[in-house]
Amino acid sequence: MKARSKILIKQLIWAGLQGIDCIGSKNERGKKVYTRTLEENLFVDSLSESTARSFSQGDGNELSKGKYPGKMQALHSSSALGVNVFEYWKQNGGASEIALACGLVRKGSDAPQDIVFEVKFPINDKFAIAPNIDIVINNKEGSTVKALAIECKYSEAYGGRGHGGLKEAYLSDCEKLWQDIPNLKALAESISPDDDRFKYLHAAQLIKHILGLKRAYGKKGFRLLYLWYNVFGDEGERHRIEAEEFANCALADGILFHVLTYQALIERMAKTLGIEHRSYINYLVTRYL
């Protein structure tokens, strides 16, 4: 069975056990893998005002704008998974706790201040579109590392549709940004304009995130985490190998790049968090492990 099918079946079983009646992307048309309301697909009662605003202003049509469900209402939605893990901490002032669980800060650090979704970091003012980074944890003023950025992947990595390479303009028009990252530049050249190297990892997207963050904060002013969902079998193993290959390249250039699976993150939190977070942990374990 394909990895994406495994994810969908698991989520449909979860929805059935919760008594959630799913609909299609066009209500009664389409595969019935969307919840009727956004709240049915989330752990929190509702999105915070700032999070709702971030998604409504984003490019992904995550929130419903009419009679059809938004993408975040899909059981297999990457944005819903990201919200289910991170929005809880945003609403409860726990930026440091989730940053620690992600391995982005040391124990006792009070640097992380707030959690923001769908953040744009322009790479070049000539480019019309700046890619969105799924989640950014901003550190307090004066911190050496200014931002902890997180790119999240769920079922889309296993969609089988492939992904684009890096457009040549990112190499030709951003010369200064490449000067001290030769290994990433060589990788970028190997996937421009088409990416025949990576099947599951969207390497071009990660490179664009690094360029945008590097422009905003400098080479040492950020950390970037690739947080992905593992699926047992060959597809999950190949995804892991590709993620590690990219990580080794980034680290060779001195980029503070990390790789972590959602399963490892949830298991880590289940072992370390106290009883006050029990309902949150039970939700994540039941739904995603």
Short description:
The protein has eleven helices and five strands. With 289 residues, it is α/β, with parallel strands linked by helices.
Measure the end-to-end span: 18 Å
Instruction: Please mark out the parts with pLDDT under 50 across 5 or more consecutive residues, or reply none.
Output: none
Q: Which radius of gyration do the C-alpha atoms yield?
A: 19 Å
Percent helix: 40-55%
What shape does the CA trace take?
A: globular
Average predicted confidence as pLDDT: 95
| N to C succession of SSEs | HHHHEEEHHHHEHEHH
Strand content: 5-15%
Structural class: alpha/beta
Number of domains: 1
Largest sheet: 5 strands, mixed
Report on the structure:
With 289 residues, the protein is of the alpha/beta class. It has one domain. The protein has a five-stranded mixed beta sheet, with helices on both faces. The relative contact order is 0.12.
